[in-house]
Each structure stands twice: as C-alpha cells, then as structure tokens.
Amino acid sequence: MGRYISPEIYNKYKQQVLDMSLAVQNYVGIEQQRTESCMTDAEMAAKLGLTAAEVREIRTIAFNDLHHADMWLNSDDEKRMKCQSYFKKR
Amino acid sequence: MSSSPEEKIKKLGKKLGANLVGIASVEDINKYAPEGHRPDDVLMGAKSAIVFAGQLTPKGAWHSKGYQVHHMNRSFGIPYRNRIAFDVALYIEEKYGYYAAVASGGNISAKLCAEMAGMGTRSMAAGIVLNKDWGLLNFGVAMTTMPLKPDGMVDEQVCPHPSCVKRWEKEGKTFCLDACPECLSGELEDGKIKWMRYNRHVCATRAQTRSINSFQRTLLEAINEPDLEKRKSIVLGTFFGSVVATVSTANTMGQCGECLRGCPITIKARTLKPKWKPGDPG
Ligand code: SF4
Ligand code: SF4
C-alpha cells in the first residue's frame, strides 16, 4: 500500500469492512458475537485478502464517510428532544 | 497487620481519585480478547490489569434539563483517569520492581478488563458495563507483569433491572430501548438479555458530536462546498467553532447518555439523600 488507500480499493471494500467492524455490534446474551462483525483489522484483512494496514485505512475513512456531516450537526437536537421527553414523562 | 500489595494498590488508586479499583488477570482477559488486543500484546509478560473506575459526573448533572450539562460535567475524563493509571504504574515499578504501563485507547478493551475485574456486567444500553451501585462508570487501565490476585467477574448480571423485566413483559420495551431505538435493539427472555444490537456508527455522531471525527467530516464538507459564502458559514459558524474548541481541549468523549437517563440502575446510582439540613452543625 502507498501512503494513501486507492479510491478503487476503498470503494470496493468499504461496505464489507464496515459490516465486519465494530460499527454494528451484536450480542447473544451479553457475549459479543465476533464471527460476522466486531472483528479486528487483522481478522478482516485475512478474510478479504488485504493487509491489516489497508483495512485500518478503509475502516477509518469509511466510519467518517458513512453519515453526512449534518448527522453530527443535527445530533444536538436529537439529544435535546430525548432529554426533554424524559423530563416531560416524569 | 500489614496490608497486601493488592490492598495497597487499590488504596492508592482511590486516594488518587478513582471511585473503584479492581484487578483482572490477563489470563482471564485473554479468553475473550482477540489477538493483537491483549494486555500482553501491549506489555510483554503482562499478568494483571488494574482497572480504575470513576463515576461519570457529579450526580447533579443528571438532574438538569439541559442535556449538554451532562457532558460539561464529565469528571473522570481520559487525561484524569490515565493520570491515575500512570501514577499507580510508577508506584508498582518503584515499590515492587515489576514493569507496568498504561493501556491507551484502542489497544485493549477497557470494558472487557472492567468486566473481568468484577466491576459490573454488560448492559442492553450499548453493551456498556453497568455497576450495580455506581451505574455507568468510566475506566482507565494499567497493566503490569506483577502477578496480582484478581477480583474475578461478578456472579449476577446487573442488567436488566427487575423494573425493566416488568416493563418488558407488559410493553415489550425497556427504558434504554425506548429512549434510543436508533441505536439500540434487543429482547429479554426469562429475566435476562436474550440478544442485543448496538448501532455504534449512529451513536458515535451523538456521543461524539464534537470530536475528531466530526471535525474531519465537517472540514471535508467545507472543502467540497463550491459556494464561498456557504463555505465561510460552515468554517466560521458556531458548530465548527465548538468542534474546534472541544477537540483542542481533548474533551471529546461522552457527549450523550440519554439511553441511561431513565435506567433504574443509573437512577439509583445518582440519587442523593441530604445528610445535612439548615440548622444542623456544619
Ligand atoms: S449514548 Fe446516546 S446515541 Fe448512544 S445509544 Fe445512548 S442515547 Fe443512543
Ligand atoms: S434501562 Fe438499564 S437496566 Fe434496564 S435494560 Fe436498559 S440498561 Fe438494563
């Protein structure tokens, strides 16, 4: 891998890497399931035929790329609404 | 009678500001931690992990209608808990002659270490570790090659609280699931968690609204904005300004806890009874 990940590799693998990463976490009982998701970069790399460094790069970019910037901007309103709804119900 | 090294280490951790100190054996942690994320991957020959837990905020922060007060009051932040872990690591090296180091973010799972040190169990709320007396805690971890007597896991699951089981049976909801359906889903069965799912990618935009991630994402938005006036409004506006302020003060974690606002365990942990009334001596 060069210093930056190529757009071709990134676009090809970003969804798979996200699906296999900690982005979505499944538990049976209280035990985290690590066969489909919650894998380490090295584990994902072995499955995808990439290096762990490539996976780390794809994962890091994809995690920030997944949602539009407005998600962060609007999240204050989400939190405000949740908090107000709690005090209203009491 | 002189106290054991475990007692001395715990006493020091508490003196330095931790509410709880627990010890986990690396052998126990390694039964669950994946390769590359084990304490002995970070510190060769590590035998024990010492976990320092602190309550999130003064209890009053939960009693504010301003959701952001909770974040402003986060009192056991990363620099603070790491400072405790550093000081204890140095104490172990000096007093006992064993190597010690602080586990920094991403290397090992502090949650797993906390579970193994008997500080609580995973909950329906994002799989976070809930303690029966303290509710949600923040954790710092120091590892050492010193073989210390571990505390072991707690026997009983802290979550779900009996009132959540009752609500589940009546309405098919718990307080946390009801508060944040965007991030949390799951089911209870026979009074226990049957399964749960946590959408961390959504939670991250709320629990870290002002963070390195939102800094990068908003910056990209600004760079890609062809309209110069709009670009100016993004970069010079209040949101990006507050992101820069938060990142520059490293106060980036824990900006949401709404799923726990109605959690009975958290409510119990944050409830105070006055120990003094007007007229009493000070
Ligand atoms: S911390 Fe906030 S966004 Fe995350 S699960 Fe809880 S309520 Fe939802
Ligand atoms: S509200 Fe608290 S005790 Fe109840 S299920 Fe959620 S995390 Fe567990």
Order of strands, main sheet of chain A, comes to 1-2
The gyration radius over C-alpha positions of chain A equals: 17 Å
Percent range of helical residues of chain A: 55-70%
Computed structural class of chain A: mainly alpha
- The global form of chain B is globular
The beta-strand count of chain A equals: 2
Number of helices of chain A: 4
Shape field of chain A? flat
What are the low-pLDDT stretches of chain B, counting only 5+ consecutive residues below 50? none
List the helices and strands of chain A in order. HEEHHH
Helix-strand sequence of chain B: HEHHEHHEHEEEHHEEHHHHHH
What value does the average pLDDT of chain B take? 95
- Specify the structural class of chain B: alpha+beta
Features:
heterodimer; A: 90 residues; mainly alpha; 2 strands; flat; B: 282 residues; 14 helices; 8 strands; binds iron/sulfur cluster
Summarize the structure.
Chain A is mostly helical and 90 residues long. Chain A has one domain (7-89).
What does this entry look like structurally?
- The complex is a heterodimer of chains A (90) and B (282).
- With 90 residues, chain A is mainly α.
- Chain A contains four helices and two strands, in the order αββααα.
- Chain A has one domain (7-89).
- Chain A is 63% helix and 8% strand.
- A two-stranded antiparallel ribbon of chain A has the order 1-2.
- The mean pLDDT of chain A is 94.
- The radius of gyration of chain B is 21 Å and the shape is globular.
- The mean pLDDT of chain B is 95.
- In chain B, helix 10 packs antiparallel against helix 11 and helix 10 (212-224) runs antiparallel to helix 12.
- Among the domains of chain B are: 5-144, no CATH class; 209-248, no CATH class.
- Chain B is 42% helix and 16% strand.
